[in-house]
Amino acid sequence: MLSHKNTIRALALALAAGLGCAAHAQQAAPAGAKVLKMQSSWPASSAAQDHFKLIAERVDKLTGGQLKIEALAAGQVVPPFEILDAASKKVIDGGHSISYYWVGKNKAAVLFAGPPGGPFGMDHTDYLGWMWEGGGQELWNELYQNVMKLNLVVMPAHPTSPQAFGWFKRPIKSLADFKSMKCRQTGINAEVFTRMGMQTINMPGGEIIPAAQRGVIDCAEWVGGIEDLRLGLHNVWKYHYTPGVHENNTIGEFFINTDVWKALTPVQQEIMRSANRDAFVSWSARYQKQNADALKELQEKHGVRVLRTPPEILSAYLKAWEGLAAEEAGKNPFFKKVWDSQRAYASVVVPAKRFMYPPYSYVANYYWPESAGKGAAKGGDKKK
């Protein structure tokens, strides 16, 4: 049982954490506090970086300042695409990124980022169900620790989706229209789009604008909404197409060096998990509104044409992805293991959800009939 003195101290810490009082927030790290140096793959201005900082803020408050995360942006310690290895080698204590950046190590990595098509039609809730209740997170750690031999513990983080199809220097009306274009794409998406005839170039987000200004690329996929507005893509191109099926259910990652993780107390480990889940929900709600406001600003203030992606292109992408995934499953046993797990989970959840939930457009069009079919930012299709 706690002594009276310890009880008072515990209550005081809980109040400071729960209320986030200014005095507590401003004071220096308490004596004996542990500070973890982590880096993201995102520019400092990115909304994804905001999510990273939100995790750090929650951990700080929930531990009463005894555990802190220094949430560094891309390039502050190592280049953005090198943070996975840097964390594994303990150059940094952990990172905030997205697993499809690591397909060069093993293509199964893309399956933990909410791969193309959902996968299998799953939305964020379905996919998190597979991750948290269907064995997904355990498979993810198995991939990193046992297959890729990384000294890391990983968990799902921010949902940066559904992502737009991308930005183009000229209109696209069919699959043939972008076959000769050079476009910034990363990870598995680059491979799929290459199969579809696009010339792809891999580069971090911070290099997109300079490359576009120099004419190195004709188009780019970043995220959509607030992320694209902050990056300034509207300053180089005016044709923005959405939706996309390449990242309609993207989930980021938060990872920490295994030795650093084991050095935390069980309570601190649980706080890290809880802070991450809390930030997922809190940031998601904010992100949805930010994206809606951004699409409105892009059109009304910056003259961007937000257009519907031709269905022909979306269907062609899914077909190309399915072909690539089938090939990979045939030669990569772990890819097949995860792919089969996702398919089995989706085969139960997706049909049931389609039966129970009304189509989003049905009720939306009832209340907003004037916006139906008038562009990506102002409604969906006209069908009820």
**Average pLDDT score:** 87
How many strands appear in the DSSP assignment?
11
Approximately how much helix is present in the residues? Answer: 40-55%
Percent strand equals 5-15%
Q: Helix tally?
A: 14
Low-confidence stretches: 1-27, 376-384
Query: What string gives the helices and strands in order?
Result: HHEHEHEHHEEEHEHEHEEHHEHHH
Radius of gyration: 22 Å
**Spatial gap, N to C terminus:** 61 Å
Can you list the strand order of the major beta sheet? 7-6-8-5-9-11
The secondary structure category is alpha/beta
Shape: globular
Describe this structure in words.
The chain has helices at 4-19, 22-26, 47-62, 83-88, 124-133, 136-147, 187-195, 208-213, 225-231, 258-263, 266-300, 311-331, 333-356, 360-367, and strands at 34-40, 67-72, 94-97, 152-156, 166-168, 182-184, 199-201, 219-220, 239-242, 253-257, 305-308. Helix 7 links the parallel strand 6 (182-184) and strand 7. It is 47% helix and 12% strand. The protein contains 14 helices and eleven strands. The protein is α/β, with parallel strands linked by helices and 384 residues long. A six-stranded mixed β-sheet has the order 7-6-8-5-9-11, with helices on both faces. Strands 2-1-3-10-4 form a five-stranded mixed β-sheet. 41% of the residues are buried. The protein is globular, with a radius of gyration of 22 Å.
